[in-house]
Structures are given as C-alpha cells and as structure tokens.
From TrEMBL:
Residues 629-643 have a biased composition (Acidic residues). Its EC number is 2.4.1.11. It comes from Scophthalmus maximus (Turbot). Belongs to the glycosyltransferase 3 family. This is Glycogen [starch] synthase. GO terms for cellular component: cytoplasm. Part of the GYS1-GYG1 complex, a heterooctamer composed of a tetramer of GYS1 and 2 dimers of GYG1, where each GYS1 protomer binds to one GYG1 subunit (via GYG1 C-terminus); the GYS1 tetramer may dissociate from GYG1 dimers to continue glycogen polymerization on its own. Residues 597-675 are annotated as: Disordered.
C-alpha cells in the first residue's frame, strides 16, 4: 500500500500533528542525489516513489537537486522559470558566473521541483576545486577516477547553490539539505566546512567498502557481527579499513563517504543491517531517538502486599537483560509511597538548583543572542553566526555544564528518611545494587510523599504524573480491588496487576487477551515468588522492546477499556444491592428476583483484530500489518474500525428485575411517580 502522511496520522490518533510542532512555511528542503531525474540504480526508485509524500508535506518549499543529463531531461523534466524569488536570483547569479543550472518539474507523481546542474560545463574548475578539497579537507582525488571527479564537481556546485541561496534570502532562512550516498556527500562536507546555515542529513543506502568486501568473498557479515558484539577495540577488528579501501583503489571515495557521515547533523541508513555495517565501517552509529520509559508504582507503603519487593527484584533482572542485549532503552522507575521523612535531601535540592541554573543560563544566552541578531539585522546585514556567540557566552555555558557534574551517584530517595537503615525499599536497593550509575539501564527514584502540584520537586498532581508515564506496575500480593491500575486504564495507561487483585481478576473475566489491551496479569496465585518475578521481568522486557507505534496502539486499546470501569456498567452491582436490600427490608412492598446471567448474556472483549503489541508475539517490526492480515493483503490496521468492533462487544448495563407489590405505594405506572 502506498504510504501517505494523512493515513499515518489518522490511523494513529495518538501521534502528534507534526505541522503543529514545525512550521514548514519558513523552512526549505533541498534533497540532493546523483539519481534525481537520472536513473542509475535503486536510489532513483527511492527518491521517485517518495517524492509525492514529501511534496505534500513541504509544498512549494521542496526542491530536488541532481545532475543535468540532456537525454533524461527531454523525457522526464518540464523546464520552467523558478517561482521562488530567492531561488531565481540564486540560479541567475550562478549562471552569470560560469555555471549552467536548470529549473523545472520532474514529471512523476507529485511533480516536485528539480534543480539540475550541468556538471560537465564547469569541468574547467575541477583542478582548482580538487586543490581546495586537499587543502581544507585532506582528501585527494586521483585524476583517473571519473566518477569521483563528477562527485567533486557536483559537491562544489551544490554547496555553491546552497550558500548562494542563503545569501539571496531576505530573511535568515531555515534550510534543510538531505544528501544521499557518497556521490552527493562532498556538498555536505563543504556546507559544514564553510559554516553555511544549513541543517544537513546524510543517508547511505549501502556503504562503499561493504559493497566491495561482500563482492570479494571475505565472509563479511560473520566477521562483522563477531566484532560488533565481542566488545573488542576497533584496532583488533578483522578488517584494516584503510588498507582494504586502498587495496581496492577506493580510499578517496571511502574518505568522502566517511567524512560525510561524520559531518552530518543527522546520519541515517535504510535498514538495521546497514546501520550495523555503517557503525563498523564508517565509525558512526546512525541517529535514532534515545528511548526513555517511565514506570511507576504508587499506593500505601506496604512493601510486600503492594508488590514493591517483587518489582525491585524484577527491575534488577530487567537491568541485566537491557545491558546484555545492548538496549538503547533507559527505564526510570518511580516509587510513590509515603513514608516518614524530615525534609528533602541535599543532593535532590542541589539537582533542582542545577536545573534552574541551566535554564537561567539558556535564557541569558538566548537574550544576548537575540540582541546581537537584532542589531545586525537593524543595519541591514546578515549576522555572522561565528561571531554572535562570543567568548563570554561560551564561558557562561561551560560554567553551567561544569556545575552539572557530580562527584557521586544521583540519589535514590528524594527525601531524608527517618529510618533509613530499616527502610525496606532502600535496603532492597542496596541488596540488588541499583544505584543509578551511568552504566545501569534502570534508574530508581523513591519519592516518599504523595504527589502535589505545590511540591518543589515534582510539581504535578497524580493524574498529570500518571499520564506522563508509560506503564503502571502493581504486582500486589494482596489487593481486594486495585484503584491504581483502574485509574491507569481510564487514562489510557497500560498496567501490570496480578490475579490476586480484584482488578486483575475482573479484567481476566472480561477480556480474552488482556495483555493485547495493555492489561498484564501477573500470576501470583499458582506460581512461586521466583517464577512470578521472572514473569514480571518478561512483561517489562517485552514492553521495553515495543516501538513507539506499538505503544500508541496499545494505549488506545487500553483507554477503550474505560467503558468497563464506567459507573454505567459497574453501578449495576450497586443498583442490584439496593434493590435486594429493599426487597428484604420491605417484602410486602418490594419484590426482587435475582437474575442468573447465562453465557449468552455475558460478554468478553475479543482478541484485537490487529497485530498484538508485544514483539514476542508479532515478530515483526513496526509498521507491519497483523498476522491475521497475512491472509488478506488489502486489509490494514484501522484504529476507528477496531474501536467500533470493541464497542459492539460491550453489553449494555443490565436492567434489574425489580418488581413492587404495591402500585399505590410505588406508582401506578411503575415509574416511581407515586413515591
């Protein structure tokens, strides 16, 4: 199914509208590749097929940049005059300076604008630009490599284009330049070397050296994975990368590719296996978001009954699993349980002071920056970015950073405990050794007070706190009902409870697959403590492996269960109790006939139609359609449709079989009008 931005947003109601966070009207995107309107390999297909999506997002501010090839232009491009005034001035200036730059529309779906540069027309500058490349970047390009020569010409011309466009804009522009593969990478290197106001992205579709090594029958991937996970130093790896590139006479190309990867603000690859390859061969991991998940347990300070003991033990095992699997996930576990304290501890207050100092420093530098920027614009000059931040600004920021450095580990507890040595949570933390060290993937914060919006440490109400977390963990051994997991469900937050809690048993009764709806039921009734702890660890680890999309889908499902906890449903039990009491107290007036529910009158939430959120069940990376959809390629996950299916399975609240014997007392029409 063709991907479209509108589909990705409307089908996942939990995703933010990116347009609301990023005003793209003031930004311009240049996407640079040798295969723009020039079919050479697979990159052409990548750029061509995603052009419509990018055009829909960026509109008139999206420009593809590629080489001018006359045979391709005749059949694929409609040459027109630039509609952007600054871009028109840029192209006119370059053409008057000895270049040939063309502007038009690429005749593909989306009809994106293209800027095509005649590389051969500026070949007279090749030697000069090669000398400049050697002088400033220490990269030499041999005369016999025609493809590399084209890359040099294309790189200098694209950097010229971007720099000229920035100079022609009347207001400081927000330029994003996305470079594909090493053939376009030199333009990125020059943008950074010349300090152009351009945000750069470099995408490698396949590394040069990886392609050559695989073609040479060197058992590349086995040697690669062995080195990546053996914790050896780079110098001990099987491949001498410089020698391998030199032996294949591609050392200059390898240098261009590796430099582009390191110079880019954002470095990406097209797959996970390419990411591993790039980390080893180019010595930079592709950029990705660092995931930080917030878990919490809250309630009365009953260490065993509320399951704080098993939670802490599971966190220690989770920390081990995350570390040995080289996970990028950091888990922050909050314990919100009131205990006897006398005040906030010094380290916590110091951390708050440091945070405030960082904020004040950022505001100060921001004001100074804005003043200098205004003064520069006031006299009609574009600001020199290198001079706007002076030595004093850098000194202020360095002092602020220095103040954040600690000589000890971050504190576990936010307060001074009156009985520190006898506190169950702190003693357990000491036993399992989770002291919030930099190497630990699991961090613990013990807040021995209930939350309040007036607190100087966590100034928020409990509801705000819960909505900001990803998972509530309540592995209680004794819990008659369980309001905390119920509150999580109503707010759409997944939770872990047990089959020894009223909430857990209730959900098991009403949901065919509770975990698919974000309700994890821990077995503490038929398993020993160690087995239950292993099961809890498994729940936590699987939750950490979920993608952001899977967590959003799960939260949507969890929130739909709130109907089960609505008083319109649960209130029927109170109604029945009141009717029963009336019938027993006033048998001559009221008659109550208990209703025996049958299997047909009950209901259970079915398994979701879409893929279960747990990676262990789906075994597919997001976004992947469900296993149920494997039999129907045209069917996809539809959040609204799935919600409607779930609503159909919700039975309306029962009408209590309430009868009265005396119409004169209760009302002749049976509606209560006579009371």
């Amino acid at each position: 199914m063709p991907l479209a931005r509108s589909l990705s947003v409307t089908s996942l109601s939990g995703l933010e509208e990116w347009d609301e966070e990023f005003d793209l009207e003031d930004a311009v995107l240049f996407e640079i590749a040798w295969e723009v309107a020039n079919k050479v390999g697979g990159i052409y297909t990548v750029i061509q097929t995603k052009a419509r999506l990018t055009s829909d997002e960026w509109g008139e501010n999206y420009f593809l940049v590629g080489p001018y090839v006359e045979s391709n232009v005749r059949t694929q491009v409609e040459l027109i005059e630039p509609t952007n005034p600054a871009l028109k001035r840029t192209i006119d200036k370059m053409n008057s300076s000895g270049c040939k730059v063309y502007f038009g529309r690429w005749l593909i779906e989306g009809s994106p604008y293209v800027i095509l540069i005649d590389v051969a027309f500026t070949a007279w500058s090749l030697d000069r630009w090669k000398s400049e490349l050697w002088e400033f970047c220490d990269i030499g390009v041999p005369w016999f490599d025609r493809e590399a020569n084209d890359a040099v010409l294309f790189g200098f011309l694209t950097a010229w284009l971007l720099g000229e466009y920035a100079a022609q804009c009347e207001e400081p522009p927000h330029i994003v330049a996305h470079f594909h593969e090493w053939l376009a990478g030199l333009g990125l290197i020059l943008c950074r070397q010349r300090q152009l106001p351009v945000a750069t992205i470099f995408t490698t579709h396949a590394t040069l050296l990886g392609r050559y090594l695989c073609a040479g029958n060197v058992d590349f991937y086995n040697k690669l994975t062995d080195n990546l996970y053996s914790k050896k130093q780079w110098i001990m790896c099987s491949f001498n990368l410089d020698k391998e590139a030199g032996d294949r006479q591609i050392y200059h190309r390898y240098c261009l590719e590796r430099s582009a990867a390191h110079c880019a603000h954002v470095f990406t690859t097209v797959s996970q296996i390419t990411a591993i390859e790039a980390e080893y061969l180019l010595k930079r991991k592709p950029g990705k978001w660092h995931i930080c998940l917030f878990l919490f347990i809250a309630g009365r300070y009953e260490f065993s009954n509320k399951g704080a003991d098993i939670f802490l033990e599971a966190l220690a095992r989770l920390n081990y699993l995350l570390r040995v699997n080289h996970s990028d996930v950091t888990v922050v576990a909050f314990f919100i349980m009131p205990a006897r304290t006398n005040n906030f501890n010094v380290e916590t207050l110091k951390g708050q002071a440091v945070r405030k100092q960082l904020w004040d420093t950022a505001q100060t530098v921001k004001e100074r920056f804005g003043k200098k920027l205004y003064e520069s614009l006031l006299v009609g000059q574009l600001p020199d970015i290198s001079k706007i931040l002076d030595k004093e600004d850098l000194t202020i920021m360095k002092r602020a950073i220095f103040a954040t450095q600690r000589q000890c580990q971050p504190p576990i507890c936010t307060h001074n405990m009156l009985e520190d040595s006898g506190d169950p949570i702190l003693n357990c933390v000491r036993r399992i050794g989770l002291f919030n060290s930099s190497a630990d993937r699991v961090k613990i914060i013990f807040h021995p007070e209930f939350l309040s919006s007036t607190s100087p440490l966590l100034p928020m109400d409990y509801e705000e706190f819960v909505r900001g977390c990803h998972l509530g963990v309540f592995p209680s051994y004794y819990e008659p009902w369980g309001y905390t997991p119920a509150e999580c469900t109503v707010m759409g937050i997944p939770s872990i409870s047990t089959n020894l809690s009223g909430f857990g048993c209730f959900m098991e009764e009403h949901i065919a697959d509770p975990s698919a709806y974000g309700i994890y039921i821990l077995d503490r009734r038929f398993r020993g403590v160690d087995e239950s702890c292993n099961q809890l660890t498994s729940f936590l680890f699987q939750f950490c492996k979920q993608s952001r999309r899977q967590r959003i889908i799960q939260r949507n499902r969890t929130e739909r269960l709130s109907d089960l906890l609505d008083w319109r449903y649960l209130g029927r039990y109170y109604i029945a109790a009141r009717h029963m009491a009336l019938a027993k107290a006033f048998p001559d007036t009221y008659l109550y006939e208990p209703h025996e529910p049958t299997s047909a009158s009950g209901f259970r939430y079915p398994r979701p139609a879409s893929v279960p959120p747990s990676p262990s069940l789906s075994r597919h990376s997001s976004p992947r359609h469900s296993e149920a959809e494997d039999n129907d390629e045209d069917e996809r996950y539809d959040e609204d449709l799935e919600a409607e299916k779930d609503r159909v399975n919700i039975r309306q609240p029962l009408t209590m079989p309430f009868k009265n014997k005396s119409p004169a007392v209760y009302g002749a029409n049976g509606t209560g009008d006579g009371v």
